[in-house]
Amino acid sequence: MMKKKILMMLAIMMVTLGAFAQKSELKESGDISHNRFLTDEVCLQCAFSLPQPPSDTSKVFDNDIKYYKLGKEERERKNIREEVLREDETSIFALFSSVLGMKLSKEHTPEIYKLAKTAINDALFAAHKGQEHFKRTKPYVYFHEESLTSKGDDADFKDKENSYPCSHSTHGWILALVLGIIAQEHSEALIKCAEQYATYQVIMGRHWKSDIDAGRTLAMILFSKEVITPEYQQQMLKAKDEYKSKR
Fold first, then answer.
1. CA distance 194 to 199
2. Measured in whole angstroms, how far is the alpha carbon of residue 189 from the centre of its chain?
3. Alpha carbon distance 211, 6 (integer Å)
4. d(CA 129, CA 164)
5. Does residue 11 fall inside a structural domain?
6. CA-to-CA distance for 149 and 202, rounded, in angstroms?
7. Does 13 reside within a domain?
8. For the purposes of burial, counting CB atoms within 10 Å of the CB of 214, is it exposed (0-12), middle (13-18) or buried (19 or more)?
């Protein structure tokens, strides 16, 4: 049911993209030469519009604990794909390249890469500012355990209050939304890829389930702002042309 709702939202975004072009407000725009579609102000507004993280006494938090325990069981018995363990941009582009059957890179697809990287920069900026604002404790720290990528004395603990929203979920989802406009025939697979990319953060013990849900919400809010900027619209046209020429 959730996937159907997400697909419907994506379809609506695709259909209405052209209509947004006439409603663009310059104050919403960032500067693509500085690798952002949105201004700091707009990104902050988007991040701070998220609801507060669930309290420890809420049913949502009970659900978070359930998913944390399931994730712990999963990481103890299953090898996790190498790509999701790396923090560099190569990892996420490698995952989504496999969906499109096309290598996404600065060298091979420069226009698609520029579009995607600029959208991801908005997502990471907003998500990190949201984490600073909400200061939610990461699950493995909450339970005094190690995450899949942490050690007992690791530097990961410096980020112990950077849990909500999940930045991996935010930039994974915004990449799925951007690529879904370019390659509409792959939209369902792209959504599945974004879900997988975010869910691995729960499996690794680095984020709560509600963190990755908030990341998805933030991505959709940011995307709705990006599509009305002239910079996004111009770069999207270039990316679409490049995708057609590479197929």
1. 8
2. 15
3. 17
4. 10
5. no
6. 12
7. no
8. buried
What is the rounded distance in angstroms from the CA atom of residue 240 to the CA atom of residue 213?
29
- Domain total for the chain? 1
DSSP count for the chain of H helices, then E strands = 10, 0
For residues 229, 235, 239, 245, the Cα torsion angle rounded to the nearest 10 degrees is 130
Per-position pLDDT tens, the chain of length 247: 555 545 445 444 443 343 333 333 333 444 444 589 999 999 999 999 999 999 999 999 999 999 999 998 887 776 655 445 554 456 789 889 999 999 999 999 999 999 999 999 999 999 999 999 999 999 999 998 877 665 544 445 556 778 999 999 999 999 999 999 999 999 999 999 999 899 989 988 899 999 999 999 999 999 999 999 999 999 999 999 999 998 8
Flag whether 23 is in a domain. Answer: no
Count of CB atoms situated within 10 Å of the CB of 70: 13
Per DSSP, the three-state class of 29 is strand
Whether the Cβ atoms of residue 125 and residue 226 lie closer than 8 Å to each other: no
What span, in angstroms and rounded, lies between the C-alpha atoms of 124 and 94?
18
User: pTM of the entire structure?
Assistant: 0.83
Residue 20 lies in a domain: no
Q: Which domain holds residue 132?
A: 29-246
Structure-token match 């659900």, residue found: 63
Phi-psi map region of 36: left, alpha, beta (phi>0 left; psi -120 to 50 alpha): beta
Q: Is residue 165 within 8 Å of 131, Cβ to Cβ?
A: yes
**CA–CA separation, 108 vs 111, rounded Å?**
9
For the domain that residue 222 is a member of, what is the CATH number? 1.20.144.10
